[in-house]
Amino acid sequence: MDGPPSLVLEAFGLRSAAVRLEGGQGQTWRSGEVVLKRADGESAWRADVLSVLPESTAFRVPRPVRALDGEWVAHGWEASELLAGATDVRRQDDVLTAAGAFHEAVAGLPRPDFVDERDDPWAAGDRVSWREQSIDGSTAYVDLVRPLLDVWRPVELAAQVVHGDLPGNVMFADGLPPAIIDWPVYWRPPSWAAAVAVADALCWYGAAPDLAARWAHLPEWGQMLVRALIYRMTTDDLAGGAETWTSARRAGYAPVIELAVSYAG
Fold first, then answer.
1. pTM value > 0.70
2. Which CATH number among 3.30.530, 3.40.50, 3.30.200, 3.10.20 corresponds to the domain 6-83?
3. How does residue 39 score in pLDDT terms, banded at 50, 70 and 90?
4. Dihedral sign, CA of 203, 141, 189, 209?
């Protein structure tokens, strides 16, 4: 992806050339002490929230930067302050602790309209995992997800805005609270967001099964793990189809599915 053109830098009052940053799927750029990335339909909402979120000793967030005309978005780009730190997928307990504090801080926000307007594999995967939508998945997907569907049951938990992709989006720096970045907004219980993080860590980041045990005190933990895995697998299937299900992909999910079923049973 091309970097921000000069008119974007000018719109935000930036003078330094934009340099691509590592991470962010190659889609984030730095100009001086400001980070730039393509805006989406949720950018202004996130900026409104993060610009006024009180300071915390438990977490940091990137404060949004307004364009010179006072808007959060200019020529299809958004900007935020550059934060010190680097992600570390080995520190998932610290990720979850910071996320818990962040979710407490945003708990009173109303449900954003855009949550219901999304139409992509991630939104569909989320809805399928809560039985708000159905899909006709590939044979490999159906076989993998069946044990989870067998133990799925309704739950009564309050939903709120949460961060739906935590493991690789929390940065650490010596002497500073963890920084929570790249916020994909979902309207689900906070324990679901934690379960997605734990499932991802177990499947792909080499976490040991006792990570799940350490967070099993969270509400409806087994059912949240079940939903987290259905969400991820459904998204995988919708995004990649049958070719997604390589032996390595199935092997990554299989023991975590068994673990989730043991908690939900």
1. yes
2. 3.30.200
3. very high
4. negative
